[in-house]
């Protein structure tokens, strides 16, 4: 194997390892949020803040990440992002409210850095395989999201590790990713030329109506995802299943969506535009949350889990694919990624806390689930616009 082929192979592995770390710091919290709430005496709205803080970090970090990577290279910036994730997750070993929230915010900053850079890196390094590589890293992301959600309760309660050790264990994949990227940085001595695409001189995406529609689509589908990760176990528990079973059902939803993570962007790229794909995913979302709302039987809850898993994974993968499919260059893909994720996650950040607050006020999950149905309609509306065959440079 030539040095270039070795570097490309390790680069693919590096992208996959980074993607492994973009969800567990968040998805591992939902199943044990009751333990955290009880141990630290948190209200529902403040417990929801544990999944909201990373989104706040996404919103503020995303716009500046491309400029930082222009100065230090995407490899070094990705390494810094992984370091933030590592430190933020390790901080959860300390059962202190302030340290828990501070570590969560730091991990969120690291995740935001990696979130923004990956679409641009894929567009630059694999220009003819954008949809395929997007599917690969989103699917990898989904694998660890599912695992983190599913094993949290068994580790915390079954093994007796408690919520602190359970949440901190996800520092291990972050450490592995850091080691590989240190090697990649050492291997690739001259990165200046390869990183020119990150130099974000073009800011016209902020003036593009299409870019804003993509950002809204990303924000609303992210709203659904992070609310579901944070509160689906509690919603299922309220429907009569045990909290351990609810954790596994949430994990199953994410696992069921894995094929959609890979197939949706690959299939969508084969169409002239992606509006029909958006409409299908939106209808599946409506079926899923409606079934959860009226889910007084196990078959309805299972239907809900299947539909929610498909739509969350598929729409997220499609949103990331849009960042490459709606731009003509890697530079514009990076610009759109920073802009769309900044606005999108700012919109999504209110989700877990808002839903927790609505539950505190109403005392049931009816109003929160109706809210999710309304948001699903918004996903369809903005997604239909984002799915049209055009480029942000032309809009």
UniProtKB/TrEMBL annotation:
It comes from the Bacteria. Signal peptide: none annotated. It is a multi-pass membrane protein. Pfam families: MFS_1. Its main location: membrane. One of its GO terms (molecular function) is transmembrane transporter activity. The keyword Transmembrane applies. Residues 7-395 form the Major facilitator superfamily (MFS) profile domain. SUPFAM superfamilies: MFS general substrate transporter. This is MFS transporter, CP family, cyanate transporter. The lineage of its organism: Bacteria, Bacillati, Bacillota, Bacilli, Bacillales.
